[in-house]
Amino acid sequence: MARILYTDLAELVTNKGVVRKGGVGVTEADLGIIHDGALLWDTSNGILWIGETRKIPAKTAKGARRVRLKGKILTPAFTDCHTHLVFGGSRHNELALRLEGATYQQIAAAGGGIISSVKATRGATEAELYRTARERLVAARSLGIGVLEMKSGYGLDWPTERKLLRVAAKLKREFRGKMTIQSTFLGAHAFPAEAKSPAQHDAYVDEIVDNMIPKVAIEKLADACDVFFDEGYFDARQTRRILKTATRYGLEIKLHADELANTGGAALAAELGALSADHLLKIDDKGIAAMASRAIVAVLLPVTAFYLGLGYAPVARMRKAGICFALATDFNPGTAPCLHMPFVMSLACLHMGFTMPEAFAAATYGGARALGLHAAHGSLRVGSKPRIAVFNCPSYQALIAQIAHPALCEAVL
Q1: Does domain 78-370 have CATH number 3.20.20.140?
Q2: Left (φ > 0), alpha (ψ -120 to 50) or beta: where does 378 sit?
Q3: Could you tell me where in the chain the CATH 2.30.40.10 domains are found?
Q4: What pLDDT digit, counting tens, does each position of 150-195 carry?
Q5: How far apart are the first and last CA of the chain?
Q6: Superfamily assignment of 3-76+379-412 in CATH?
Q7: What is the per-residue pLDDT across 324-355, written as a single tens digit (0 to 9) for each?
């Protein structure tokens, strides 16, 4: 056990008011910023004291190692609550195809997209998948990400899905003292290439419900279950069946919803009591009202919309309805090859109408709430033990204004 007193901070960002308001209607005052701040950290018990450097009680400082961080900031670490971190192969060629005019759906129909990654992932060994995923995880941590969700979904058969979840479990154990990692079963990411007819699609859903989810639960391989509910992928009947089964087996649930078309994904997330609905580019007012009524977190993924040249989610309408926002990278090989959470905040502010306080809260507390981890993470409170980040910049605003700066994060605790 060690006690460290961090002092002389340009800003200590606590998110105190963000927590009180449940991440809704965030303003600058809600970030709870303490200028010339100080924080006493116990490696075993977490935060013991928070306040101004000039007001540190003598009893608090006694026996603690003092670390002066003049000109730097200390904040809750970022929570990246939506990633596809474990996969084989590369899809860099798809950007060239899109630049020539091909759409996401056209690339997928020609054997690219998710199915391309499935082929490469099935051919990769568990050791190879672990090595590349570990490299990505180290990069994520260097950018200030302390809490991260990683999905399966590039297997679309049980042996490969299990392989992906085993890699996630191994990384969760290895990084236990450095990051908090959640894993999500996304066997319903797409239909396997070998399932070509509607009957074969239903047979694959049978396989997920009758075989995969029970095994995921028995082997304790995932914290949650996700479904890509959208046009050309899983429909409402199939999605409802998969997620209700996941709930029966004790898994939290979430949805890829209303990204390519308005299929009622947001409303279904509310009906089923999901932790979050993610993407939401095509959400309608009915879906917004349903999410607001059940306090479902809206996980917005601006890099994906930016990379694909799509319109962004209707932030102003969701804000007016009182929805809690989360921001995440959607890191994946084809439509969001980016782990840079500060850049995600920049896009949200420059292209989606977020304010800086909203973006910061969504990248920290909102993300933690989207994973059901907000009691511990996403804010700094005495008695809690969250993931904490130290950044070499004078203000949280600099993280957003200095677009894609490579070296601002000094440490994640």
Answers
A1: yes
A2: left
A3: 3-76+379-412
A4: 999 999 999 999 999 999 999 999 999 999 999 999 999 999 999 9
A5: 14
A6: Urease, subunit C, domain 1 (2.30.40.10)
A7: 999 999 999 999 999 999 999 999 999 999 99
